[in-house]
Amino acid sequence: MTSPVKTSSSPSRGASPWKFRKGGFPGENGGGVSPADRCGGTAGCRGGEPAWSGVPALFVFGDSLVDVGNNNFLPLSLAKANFPPNGVDFPGGRPTGRFSNGYNVADYLGKLYGFRRSPPPFLSLNEPEIRQHVWGGISYASAGSGILNSTGSTQGEVISMEAQLHYFRTSLKSFRAAECSINLRLLLSKAVFLLCTGSNDIFAFYNSNSSQIHLSKAEFITTLTSNYEKHIQRLYRLGARRFGMVGLGLVGCCPSMRSRTPSGGCMAELNDLARQFNLALRRVLKSLSGKLKGMKYSFGDGQKLGNMIADDPSSFGFKDAMKACCGGGRLNGERPCNGNATVCGDAKEFYFWDWYHPTAVAASLSAQVLYDGPPELVFPVNFRQLAV
């Protein structure tokens, strides 16, 4: 879900009832709440139930839209963003591995839940740090990955969703089995599990020759959602109960895809695949929530939001919602954002940072919709209500 939120006048589809945060987020200036402050690190195990306020932990799974640096630690990975001009607007102006000029949507959701930003990347932590951060959250997201294990094979090295779940299970075993087990189960039941994945699977299917995949579009969507369902069930068995699901946006409208069409328009076939996936995933989530005791979910519909901004980009505060701020070639969508790229003067005026990813301001607005948006965009509850 990478479409921005309306900041001023309403689009032609009617006014929306929610309000937007125009100032900074919690922790914007280095404040925020640490894992130790939220639940006392392992101090919560010293006796009695821990006194958590709000969401005690945020666990992040997915692809480059929410990766905060795991791929930095994969020597063979080609899907990296730990070099300028990425991070030019991040505190200190440093690249971190985020595919953004600053923060990404996981960071802004973390802020809205009261954390300083996204939890840290798993691969950056040693075992004592894992034991500490498991009480406040960890990010397992990896750029280039997808729902299917085969997705990302052209990127040299990525952490598949299956491997991300394995790392999460490893995190839970990083302390003595008898220590804190009751409190940990309680924490996991109240934590938010953010899942943002699927676009790379769609791209891979579209770009592959049909003779290599041997699947129709309908069969592919079924395979994709069936695998996603298994991932969700596995997280549930590990203790997850609250799932923040980021649906796919208008994946055919990113600069990389637009640059391939003669008119510079969106690739309708890609958007239709994403729409079918979203509908199938909604059915899976509704079914699972009826069968798995205590499961709650929130689903953000990025396609509806994308259609809203397509009506009138300027009313959302963007001067350009087609061209990337950083890149090369037509629409800055034919080459990646790197040291040789053409970079815009003000990323806040652009919806896209590079050929696939949103700018920090676009990510912040998307996070606000996920967190506090109306039922037509986030349902059956929004991310704020999910945490209640």
Report what the structure shows.
With 388 residues, this protein is α/β, with parallel strands linked by helices. The protein has one domain: Rossmann fold, CATH 3.40.50. Helix content is 34%, strand content 9%. It is built from 13 helices and 9 strands. The protein has helices spanning 35-39, 105-112, 127-133, 161-172, 181-190, 199-207, 210-213, 217-237, 255-258, 268-291, 302-311, 360-372, 383-386; strands at 58-62, 192-196, 242-246, 296-300, 320-324, 326-327, 342-343, 350-352, 378-379. A 5-stranded mixed sheet has the order 1-2-3-4-9. Strands 5-8 form a two-stranded parallel sheet. It is globular, with a radius of gyration of 20 Å. 51% of the residues are buried. Mean pLDDT is 87; it is low at 2-44. Residues 24-33 have a biased composition (Gly residues). Keywords: Hydrolase, Lipid degradation, Lipid metabolism. InterPro entries: GDSL, GDSL_Est/Lipase, SGNH_hydro_sf, SGNH_plant_lipase-like. Residues 1-35 are annotated as: Disordered. Residues 1-13 have a biased composition (Polar residues).
